[in-house]
Amino acid sequence: MNSKGWISLHRQMQNHWLWDDKPFSKGQAWMDLLMMANHQENKFLLGNELIKVERGSFVTSELKMIKRWGWSKTKLRNFFKLLEEDEMIMKKTDKKKTILTICNYNEYQTSENHKETMREPQENQVKTTKKPQENTNNNDNNENKDNKDRSICQENEAQRESQLKFPLDSIEYRLADFLRKWIKKNNELAKVPGDSHMDKWSQHIDYMLRLDNRSAEDIKEVIEFCQKDEFWMTNILSTAKLRNKFDQLYLKSRQKNQPAIHPVNTEAKIKTKFHLSKSRGDKYTADELEERVLGNQKERLVKVGE
Length: 306
Hints:
Blueprint: H1 26-36, E1 42-46, E2 49-53, E3 57-60, H2 62-69, H3 73-85, E4 89-93, E5 98-102, H4 114-119, H5 143-148, H6 150-162, H7 171-186, H8 199-210, H9 216-228, H10 239-244, H11 246-257, H12 266-279, H13 286-305
Antiparallel strand pairs: 1-2, 3-5, 4-5
Helix pairs in contact: 7-8, 7-9, 9-11
């Protein structure tokens, strides 16, 4: 199957009777997410709060998606978790809403060769078929506007990347920055993301906190441990690698913090007691010790009988 090239899909297909057939497949659900995403930045009012929704994102809720796809809550959450782990979407949820963002959204909306393909001569066609079809490959998301000038798309992409989804004061950003500073401390020439490109690093911290149920304290402790260790400091050079090796690093950090446990040498302990008794001048043979012990027991029995 040829995976190259692309086609335009009109959102009206979501109103077709075939699209109403439930439950959705995973592939159909993924296509549905792509078509639900905003083509351009938008704002809407939720209660008394003005919500800003970026290009490639949209606001929804679990209940809405469950009803839309005909899925159970468990299946929906597992699907979203799968997409997050594969870095296909980013999900932010609070008490009022869920914001889903399609990662690399522009890759699904812009084709480098689209203009060239449209300009290629079609040799064996009737002359009447050479007439431009004005509405071909055009839909309500204005994708033709994107294809007019690729440089504009590149500028928009750079601008989108520079807008951090995790604020500088968020725990995700601060933990990612904590690792970045340690890496630079160990190697000034290390390649690390700049301040405006920390989202990917912060996203892996978000996965660790939200999907892996790690605590911020444990993550910080493991970062410090691995960056002080001569072996691990050369291997853990990103938050993605940190997440991948976290269990192993956590156990090793715990082992390093525990005091060493040495086996008890019983023979040495007995010898020590023997030498101590000698130092006190208590020199007894085995028979004398036995007689002394038995004598003490008899004395106790006599006292009890009295």
